[in-house]
Amino acid sequence: MKKLSILLTCISLNIAAQVTIKIDPTKEVKQISPFLYGRNNSFSSTNPNEQLSAEDLTRLRDAGVRFFRESGGNNSTKYNWRRKLSSHPDWYNNVYTNDWDNVARNLQKNFPNAQGMWAFQLIGMAAKTNQYNFNDWEYNRSNWWEGVNQNLAGGGVLNTTGTKAKTDGDPNLYLEKWTADSTTGILDHWFGSKGIGLDKSKIIFWNMDNEAEIWNGSHDDVVPKPISAEEFMQKYFAVAKKARKKYPDIKLVGPVTANEWQWYNWPTTINHEGRNYPWLEYFIKRVAEEQKASGIKLLDVFDIHFYPPTKVNDEIVQLHRVFFDRNYIYPGSNGVKNVNGSWDNSQNKEYIFGRINDWLTKYMGANHGITLGLTEMGIEGDNANVTAVWYASTIGEFMKNGVEIFTPWYWKPGMWETLHLLSKYNKTSSIKGESSNETLVSAYPSINAKQDSITVVLVNRSGTAAQNINLSFDNFVLNNQQLKALSLKSLPNTETFFSDTKNALVESNLTITDNKINISLPPFSVTSIQLSGKVGQVSILGKETEEELAIKVFPNPSSDKITIQWETGAFEKIELIDVQGRKVYEQAIQKGTKTTEINHSLTEKVYLARLIQNEKVVVKKIVIQR
User: Fold this and answer.
1) Domains along the chain?
2) Separation of alpha carbons 559 and 455, rounded Å
3) What CA–CA distances, in Å, run from 602 to 136, 558, 587, 610, 622?
4) Model pLDDT for residues 596-608, shown as the tens digit of each residue
5) Binning pLDDT at 50, 70 and 90, where does residue 590 land?
6) Can you give the pTM of this predicted structure?
7) Rounded CA gap, 281 and 360, in Å?
8) Which of 313, 320, 441 shows the shortest CA–CA distance to 386?
9) For 118, which of 249, 401, 523, 572 is 20 to 30 Å away at the CA?
10) 240 burial class (0-12, 13-18, 19+ CB within 10 angstroms)?
11) What backbone torsions phi and psi does residue 616 show, to the nearest 5 degrees?
């Protein structure tokens, strides 16, 4: 009895460990934005003559990068397109060559179907000359040290310790005034009749500067003390209106908010109409008011950044839940405690994109037409498998929820592999995928426009245990055949992706049984399964409807010829499937026919006969006996 009890316990645990996943292509259908397959800083803008190597171009193409954000983050805020210069806030404010023209030409030459993205400058000053740079080469051979943020350009006095100069340099020596007309002039320079001839349909999206909430830190040479939120809004409105007038089809992407704290907090308290506002709600409210007053659309994509500090693997693989999961208690919650305008320590659920959608609807109405973007994100840690799981989960959640742009800032081993797997094999529309244990295993299914092909991405977030998955399909009939699964698992912490043919994808075989698939997912893994079939209902043997009972198969068992008759329905073809799921026979059915005969030379065994019409498959069992 003791041995029996142990055996039963083991069986029970095994059954409990199975995760069931149901896919339904008729529900929660959303178009997938190709701009989720994006990157930052793939080209150099600091060396006008630099060209990407053949190896780099192959990696970018084969990985399927569709969106290139090339403005350079903090370095974009004081960019001068006329002089092709920018002031670098993280390097003494020194001014260096920065040639966006060259990058844009190279991008459109090498990736003519991709979208490129750059930024307008809202801060009001732009780089003028490099004649007042701090001589970092003479000081320490241009090596990084804690003082690289000292404001030494413009004649500043060096402090050999710390992050503050003894005396700040004069920004008026190396910067010049840069108005809304100045910054939007790049549109004429690039796309105008006397411009350089770039294709503006491939540079639709424009960031409205970068991380204005922290200008008093990152750009304290220009903004030594925080400006008010309303002062920033006026800068934003001025540039947005000029840009829209010059380029009506432009996609304005803002406010480009720095991190979780800044999602809710401007450097100074926002008190408006008698109440305190969190920053992003106030931004949306003011944009809505100005749009109504001016009749000009001032925002197209709502854009934020995110740099979570956690190094705990089990927390990193749950970071995708920060954006839409209204029940997820985020361990790093901080700024959200001010979501109601005053500190509330009980606030620990972010769902930041969910909140943004709520505010957009509140202030602009249900049909506001504004999408979502995450143009910078960086995670900590160096486990390539954790990185792959986080990246796949984030893209998957963004597919499900209609996010338009995703361009991570940190790029780590595991990301090229994941980008390649998803961009190459995913279909065009996200569909419903329901997991019995969403925290542990998620499915991110997609379907093509013809609705005859589905890709299911499965993510196992357990770092210690394989997960047994039962994958079933509602309203989709699979073609019974053996399948191949492509998996990322056990990745080393060095780069493994070089091209479509040189990578770490592992292939395995799967079998369909009764329109279901069983698969075991390795720990910390991402798996993609490609399936074919058609939208419709599959019949379950033993549970026949009246219509199915009206289908006669005789003789059954059969030795040579089988006749099938039916009273209703207009079937297009018949297939015979063996017990291994292989199609061994196929025959077209003439239109209007109610009887078909199968003359066969099949071996003795059981087969499934599949009668197929446009939206339905009826299955009947056939036995061959000699």
Assistant:
1) 27-86+98-126+177-434 (3.20.20.80), 440-535 (2.60.40.1180), 546-624 (2.60.40.3080)
2) 39
3) 82, 10, 15, 16, 11
4) 888 777 777 778 7
5) confident
6) 0.87
7) 8
8) 313
9) 401
10) buried
11) -155, 145
